[in-house]
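Per your request, structure below.
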């Protein structure tokens, strides 16, 4: 049997088993030799437009439609439950979230058990999906989310005499969901599943939309809480959701100190819960894209990157980035104390000026670093990686999409300042910061996207073993080498193969010079990546943990009015915060690939 006929038979058997209800799983009919052949042979392109491929796209469309409907339902319930005028109870939202999390938990357990017992369920794995640093970040955010659930359970338990049981059950189910999903993504993020394709796609889509629903709930909760702190007299309309602020009634209140600790504790943990949901959503989406995917390693080679943090770097970028990180934390502490503690207006203006100046310096330096890195890429001789990579495609889409949130806030601020003809110092700093924010996002996206599309470097300028024998040492005496080269051009007897002939001294020196240039470029790219990474960490920390100059600076508030400006910030700012954390993950990958 030829290779093509074997592949067609396997493909037909696999798709028929998936489409037929109650039939055997697709790989049970394949022998070990046939399974091995799928991993070592190229897959013919002539099958790309077969009827089975058309149904594959139809199965994807069905799961996408399912996900869209679940997202819209979640968005409707979450947004409606946050306003007092809407006759929608908060426990309706908790009930819906609890149900979808339980469904996702059951499906993930079914997936883990079934794929572990079914031979041939996973024929290949996507080496680009779920890198170790991404899974490590997911575990870190999962642990902090569990801490938040503990605080939330303790807080709601203090109101057990007047709250519905679903509010106490919700954080417990969420903790179970986080534990199961974290393990699921840790062991299965790279899977390319080939059994029950349609069921797997729908299950992954339900898991993805569950994470998005939890994310929307957390963002709404935190936004209303921050709005209440900034405008305590104007947010009573949104106090119906018991999670939001201190909106408890006199008949359902807790005056104990422990209640306040639990309440403040779980609000401080919200940024980590938000990032966990988004990280998990991205990883589940890549799994969804890889369902039914067959990777040909001949045309799509795997690059095994090793994480060497301190190899061949001067630490300049890391030191400068660490200084910016420490300075930013100090600025945030002072800002929170002087702005949120009802200090006189003069101290509030000083805090705003300090905040804007720090952001201007940080954004300016990161813009210059991004431009410098992009210029160095112009001289980089590495080829562009044009192979199919769902992980990289998603990274680029998220970078471009999430940046739109900060773009929108910046443009609204620019229009408000210019149209209101403000001439004070804070307005000038705000205008400068908004312009730099747009420039920094643009230049940084260019740098990251170009870095993600570069081929990983080979093992540090791989030199033929024959050449290493001659000049692969620390010190090379070129004159001594040249003295040993006879007139025939070879220092070895004629019986030696030509491939082992010693290069001329000029060629040796030229190779060493090129190696030094390449090493300098890569070191510069590593310094830029580490500096940008640490700067994006502090630019994530400041808005995620309470800095809201959009409300403390009253220029935009007066120009647009509180309802419109609050809606703009509450919708766009979560995307801007997510952009920073996603940029950190992408910059870490660029650093390793440099």
């Amino acid at each position: 049997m030829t290779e093509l006929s074997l592949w067609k038979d396997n493909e037909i058997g696999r798709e028929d088993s998936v489409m037929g209800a109650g039939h055997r799983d697709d790989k049970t009919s394949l022998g070990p030799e046939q399974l091995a052949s799928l991993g070592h042979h190229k897959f013919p392109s002539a099958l790309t437009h077969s009827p089975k491929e058309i149904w594959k796209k139809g199965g994807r469309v069905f799961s996408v439609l399912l996900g869209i409907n679940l997202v819209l339902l979640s968005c409707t319930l979450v947004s409606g439950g946050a306003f007092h005028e809407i006759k929608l109870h908060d426990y309706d939202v908790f009930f819906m979230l609890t149900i979808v999390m339980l469904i996702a938990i059951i499906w993930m357990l079914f997936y883990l058990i079934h794929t572990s017992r079914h031979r041939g369920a996973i024929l290949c794995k996507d080496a680009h999906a779920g890198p170790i640093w991404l899974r490590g970040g997911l575990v870190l955010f999962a642990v902090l989310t569990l801490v938040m659930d503990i605080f939330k359970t303790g807080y709601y338990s203090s109101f057990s005499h007047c709250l519905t049981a679903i509010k106490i059950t919700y954080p417990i189910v969420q903790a179970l969901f986080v534990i199961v999903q974290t393990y699921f993504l840790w062991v299965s993020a790279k899977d390319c599943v080939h059994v029950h394709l349609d069921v797997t796609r729908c299950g992954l889509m339900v898991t993805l939309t569950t994470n998005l629903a939890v994310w929307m709930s957390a963002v709404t909760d935190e936004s209303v809480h921050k709005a209440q702190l900034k405008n305590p007299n104007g947010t009573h309309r949104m106090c119906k959701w018991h999670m939001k602020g201190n909106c408890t009634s006199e008949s359902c209140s807790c005056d104990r100190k422990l209640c306040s600790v639990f309440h403040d504790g779980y609000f401080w943990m919200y940024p980590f819960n938000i990032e966990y949901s988004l990280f998990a959503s991205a990883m589940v989406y890549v799994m969804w894209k890889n369902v039914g995917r067959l990777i040909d390693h001949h045309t799509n080679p795997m690059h095994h990157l090793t994480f060497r943090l301190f190899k061949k770097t001067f630490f300049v970028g890391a030191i400068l980035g660490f200084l910016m990180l420490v300075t930013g934390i100090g600025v945030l502490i002072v800002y929170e104390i002087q702005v949120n503690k009802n200090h006189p207006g003069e101290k509030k203006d000083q805090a705003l000026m300090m905040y804007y100046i720090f952001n201007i310096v940080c954004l300016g330096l990161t813009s210059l670093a991004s431009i410098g890195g992009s210029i160095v890429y112009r001289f980089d001789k590495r080829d562009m990686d044009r192979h199919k990579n769902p992980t990289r495609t998603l990274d680029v889409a998220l970078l471009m999409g999430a940046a739109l949130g900060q773009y929108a806030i910046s443009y609204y601020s620019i229009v408000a300042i210019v149209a209101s003809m403000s001439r004070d110092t804070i307005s000038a700093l705000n205008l400068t910061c908004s312009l730099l924010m747009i420039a920094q996002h643009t230049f940084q996206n260019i740098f990251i996207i170009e870095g993600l599309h570069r081929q990983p470097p080979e093992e540090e300028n791989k030199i033929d073993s024959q050449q290493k024998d001659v000049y692969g040492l620390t010190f090379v005496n070129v004159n001594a080498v040249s003295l040993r080269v006879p007139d025939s051009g070879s220092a070895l007897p004629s019986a030696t193969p030509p491939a082992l002939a010693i290069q001329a001294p000029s060629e040796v020196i030229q190779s060493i010079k090129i190696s030094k240039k390449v090493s300098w470029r890569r070191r510069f790219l590593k310094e830029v990546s580490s500096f940008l990474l640490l700067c994006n960490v502090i630019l994530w920390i400041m808005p995620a943990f309470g800095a809201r100059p959009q409300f403390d600076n009253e220029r935009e508030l007066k120009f647009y009015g509180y309802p419109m400006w609050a809606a703009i910030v509450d919708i766009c700012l979560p995307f801007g915060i997510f952009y920073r954390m996603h940029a950190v993950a992408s910059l870490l990958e660029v650093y390793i690939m440099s």
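Strands lie at 122-125, 191-193.

Regards,
D.
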